Amino acid sequence: MKEKIVDIMREKYGVVIKPNGKKLTITDKDTIFSAYRKVAMYLFANHEMTQADELFTVEKEVERRVRNRDQRFLKLNPIQIDYDSASEEMQAITFFVNRAVKSSKGKSANTDWKDHVYYAKGTLESKYTGLYVFVSPSGAFKTSDIDYPFSISRGSHLVLLVNLPLAYGYNKLGEDFTTNFLIHSTSSVIHTQECDSFYYDLFDATMTKLKFAKAHPRLTSAIERAKCQRPVDLSECDNVDKDNYNDDVMVRVPMGSLKLSVNHKKGTYEPEEMCYFNTTYNVSVLSDVTLPNEKEKHYIYKNALPLLVDRERVYKLFTRYLQKTQSIFLQVDHDLETEQDLTHARFFEEKKNIKVETQREMNRLGNTLSDHFKHVEIDNDIDLNKLSHITPELKDTVALLPKADDGDKAILRFRKLRNHKVYGIFTTANNTVAVDFRSDENGKIEKAKGMMVGLQSLIHEYGHYLDHNMKSDAISLSSDYRFEDILFNVQSWFDKNWGNKAKNMPLKQSYLTLPSEVFARAFEVYVSRCGLDNSFTADKERINDTSILNVRYAYFEGATLKLIDNYFDNEFPDLKANIQKYVNRSKGSKNIIDKREETVKKTAKEAVKVVVFKQAEQLSLF
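Now predict its structure.
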């Protein structure tokens, strides 16, 4: 089995998972700038910094903010300063550094930077004798004071201030973005000047929210507006001499009917700038970019639109990376919580005192399923006679499923899982797939609704197993770039359809949009779409229910279903054909029964038709 995600996160991002570590919480109120800042702070808060890490981060900051400005210095080294007997120059430096510390409102000033000082001698090409770098592990320096290095004593030394949390976090993000994300991106904007500028500013610890917004303003829906741009219709403008009209005519438009997105004279963007009644514009430099169904006209300067379209593409590119990164870290937090829960749970450990006849059946079933599972456990409360009825179907179903190519087979356990409030569960602890062998009402069938038996979760949980055990360059299949389109579509569906209503939904959006959960659910849907519908799959009626309250499946619709088909066709090329052959052989079998109508006596005088779902027998004794 692959390394756990928490181990790979340590190697890739330097994240050390802590039980009470900082959580990543990004809301719809965050801008892309504030969201990235939160991710950077999350990386630092969950990392155990070493001297080597700090020095590496400082070197990166020097390269970014000093050496790129044609300043040359030799190797940077940590130094200790005796502040009590410091030279006049060092006292002057200390004075300026102290002034850059954030206000503490009555508390003593933060001086953690005094023990984190680095020095590099200047080269012959540099006009400075040397470079001092003061680092604050707590991020004590004001952003406004660390923007540029400052010089002391007529330029003899250059001084640089570094807030370590953001500098470390942004360095890790920038490195991952360029080495692991862009290589899989099909965007045509990755080499543009706008992309480089966006990248530099977004991963800059000296940048502020206001400065970033001013440097990278956007036109909402710029790409869509560019597709529908057209000449200005003079019939919608006032004060036009149509008899003497030419391209240079100045027109006046009614108040509120014109929105300009760029100040043509200043060359800057002013979002949704409204035109006053007496304002006139040169029609020849404008384009109508009003979207369908917009009530107000929206015009823009022609020469500004290509830039804004490029900026919108860059924004989408970085938003996609943010979404991918956030998903990974939310998965990390989820896996950590799951690991903590396992200290109290024992579903993945074999029970003691198993009955002799049950042990005998475990060995027999284990041999039957040995191609896919290295061991099978059966609960003492399982009716072995009932189990024998479904064993042939279980054998056939398991034989259809792909084998993990890392050589590590799973353990299959039939256990009681109601304490976990689930029908099935998978854990990477020992590659255990566990399913409950009872119905959702412990055997009480709710007719007209259909019962959910834990056995029906087998395909879903096996999807989790494949996710973590198939070979790929990523941590898991669900975190691989090839699965991104499906994941992003699902997350966008929730953002669009749930929004502020999420708190009233039966399951948390953060759980349903985890990469691992989306993958397992998509695998379950794919198997169903291939035609498998038996005791070990959820009812087709439940899977195909697109009502918003069907939170486990409603988000798989339209284009997302096509993506799912294409993805799993490529990932498991034999699965669909094998399922369809099995279904064709099994037609007419009692194991696969479509939804039907039966007449049930309600009273002695009255009969009512009730919908009964496929037979999915529970295995418990009660």
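The first helix runs from residue 5 to 12.
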